[in-house]
From TrEMBL:
Belongs to the D-isomer specific 2-hydroxyacid dehydrogenase family. It catalyses: (R)-2-hydroxyglutarate + NAD(+) = 2-oxoglutarate + NADH + H(+); (2R)-3-phosphoglycerate + NAD(+) = 3-phosphooxypyruvate + NADH + H(+). Catalyzes the reversible oxidation of 3-phospho-D-glycerate to 3-phosphonooxypyruvate, the first step of the phosphorylated L-serine biosynthesis pathway. Also catalyzes the reversible oxidation of 2-hydroxyglutarate to 2-oxoglutarate. Keywords: NAD, Oxidoreductase. PANTHER family: FORMATE DEHYDROGENASE 1 (PTHR42938), HYDROXYPYRUVATE REDUCTASE (PTHR42938:SF47). This is D-3-phosphoglycerate dehydrogenase.
Length: 522
């Protein structure tokens, strides 16, 4: 077997694979296209940031496995790889300690003026009085996101006797305490912390998460660090705050693109680095060793447990997987978007045989910001990392549904437990919701724009809703409005031609005194 490593990766990977009998070609000087052209007989490929395109894949007719020595794998066309029966893997977690240590380095460098102190001293200046610094010891540090990196950072701060506040929407209070962080909400962290370090995933759910309101709560002289993803901080809001005289120390390691350019943070960052978080010899070696061991296990033992683009069973309808994600999203919103502690799912009829394949889709739908495209085992591990217990239940004998799915989210807020329950199935091949809470036999399409309102049943409510939507220029495509005799409540499930904004939904909910409202587009 020939393994091609066209990247600057620790030689440990090549050494390990060569010792196991593989023919290894490693070259980080020539472009990947040239190396692929020179080695068309490669069976395996290990890359870091190099793009593995359709052209690269087509140029390697014997290729069976591609491994990204790192967590993300968007640089690999894994969908096209799947169409060619090529497995793609990654090595998540190998870089966590490196990023955590980078945060410590940035804090100390910014607090003690290490960079300007070095530059000016070399220039013959002596700015000892000017560079009066601060100590990290016994400071209050807020960490947003207690995943692998956040947890490593908690450990690294222990030697500095810091008070650590942790925010993780999906982590239970006790689990956060066990990690070594005091659970806190965003408002508390931004109001009290001397240093705030961000370690949340990127994407739409966290874009602009650190907004003008939170920035405005920060103490004078507080430090804000972003080693997560570009866009999590509203840099325009930070720019305006600093321009208005607010003293915030801003350190960043993330930018729109990992490439030479004038970075948009340059005018507001007190310290900025070229995405060096994972750039250590130790992290590089760990990623290399994991990539090598996974590659060897793949070819010698047929181990596909780390594959991220595995082919689903051919007789499993992809629409059922999409149904699971949609139900997860709806159940999360129906439960008030509260932290999830437990997920229980019942698979009916033929779906029982494919239970494990639904886990990644349920994770994607129910947990905002969760990583997409995971394999079942990795999705289960991710749920555990979020402190969520996942249970796949057997249906009761007396429940005779078609190929349906019931999803129950058990949520926690302010010490109180909440349950959000939904059921769905396919009708004419399309995902529909058949039950939401106590309201059964809905059979409303999940795709498109949906407005859900729960209110005390009385005459005239539907007219109020229709008028409000009409005034907003929104047409009603379909409406289902069942009544629950036990509570006297009604539920309006309304399909609209245009999305209903949160503001519009809230206004309608207030107008009809609704106890619950949801506005979704899927």
């Amino acid at each position: 077997m020939k393994i091609l490593i066209p990247t600057k990766l620790d030689k440990a990977a090549a050494g390990t694979l060569a010792a196991a009998g593989y023919d290894v070609v490693q070259n980080d000087n020539d472009p990947i296209e040239a190396l692929v052209a020179a080695n068309p007989d490669a069976d395996g490929l290990i890359v870091r940031s190099e793009k593995v395109t359709k052209g690269i894949i087509d140029a390697l007719p014997r290729l069976k496995c591609v491994i990204r020595a790192g967590a993300g794998y968007d640089n690999i066309d894994y969908v096209y790889a799947r169409s060619k029966n090529i497995d793609v893997m990654n090595t998540p977690g190998a870089n966590s300690n490196a990023v955590a240590e980078e945060v410590i380095a940035m804090i100390l460098a910014a607090y003690r003026y290490i960079v300007p102190g070095d530059v000016t001293t070399r220039a013959g200046e002596w700015n000892k009085k000017k560079y009066m610094g601060h100590e990290l010891t016994r400071k209050t540090v807020g960490i947003l996101g207690l995943g692998n990196i956040g947890r490593m950072l908690v450990k690294r701060l222990q030697g500095f006797e810091c008070t650590v506040l942790g925010y993780d929407h999906f982590l239970s209070r006790q689990r956060a305490i066990n990690i070594g962080a005091t659970p806190a909400e965003l408002d508390e962290i931004f109001s009290t912390a001397d240093i705030i370090s961000i370690h949340v995933p990127g994407g739409p759910s966290t874009r602009g998460m650190i907004n003008a309101e939170l920035i405005g709560k920060m103490k004078d002289g507080a430090m804000l660090i972003n080693c997560a993803r570009y866009g999590v901080i509203d840099e325009d809001a930070l720019r305006a705050a600093k321009k208005a005289g607010k003293n915030i120390i801003y350190c960043t390691d993330v930018h729109p693109k990992d490439a030479a350019a004038q970075q948009p943070s340059a005018d507001i960052a007190d310290l900025m680095l070229p995405h060096l978080g994972a750039n250590t010899k130790e992290a590089n070696k760990m990623a290399a060793m994991r990539a090598a061991s996974q590659m060897d296990a793949y070819f010698s033992k047929g181990d596909t447990s780390c594959v991220v683009n595995a082919e689903k069973p051919s007789d499993l309808n992809p629409a059922h997987l999409q149904l699971a994600a949609m139900l997860g999203k709806l159940a999360y919103r129906a439960g008030g978007s509260k932290p999830i502690r437990r997920i229980e799912c019942t698979f009916y009829n033929n779906l029982r045989a494919y239970r494990k394949w639904f886990t990644p889709w349920i994770l994607e739908g129910a947990v905002p910001g969760a990583e997409h495209g995971l394999m079942p085992a990795a999705a289960e591990a991710s749920l555990r990392e979020h402190g969520i217990v996942f249970v796949a239940r057997e249906p009761l004998d007396d429940k005779l549904y078609d190929d349906a799915l019931t999803l129950d989210l058990f949520m926690e807020a302010d010490g109180e437990q909440h349950k959000s329950s939904v059921r769905g199935m396919l009708v004419d091949g399309q995902p529909v919701i058949s039950r939401l809470g106590v309201f059964d036999h809905l059979y409303a399409a999940l795709s498109g724009n949906t407005l859900v309102l729960r209110y005390k049943d009385r005459p005239g409510v539907i007219a109020v809703i229709g008028q409000a939507l009409s005034q907003a220029g929104i047409n009603i495509d379909n409406i289902i409005a069942p009544r629950d005799p036990a509570s006297g409540d009604a539920l309006a499930v309304i399909k609209t031609n245009l999305p209903v904004s949160e503001e519009q939904a809230l206004a309608i909910a207030q107008a009809i005194e609704a106890s619950q409202y949801i506005a979704l587009s899927m």
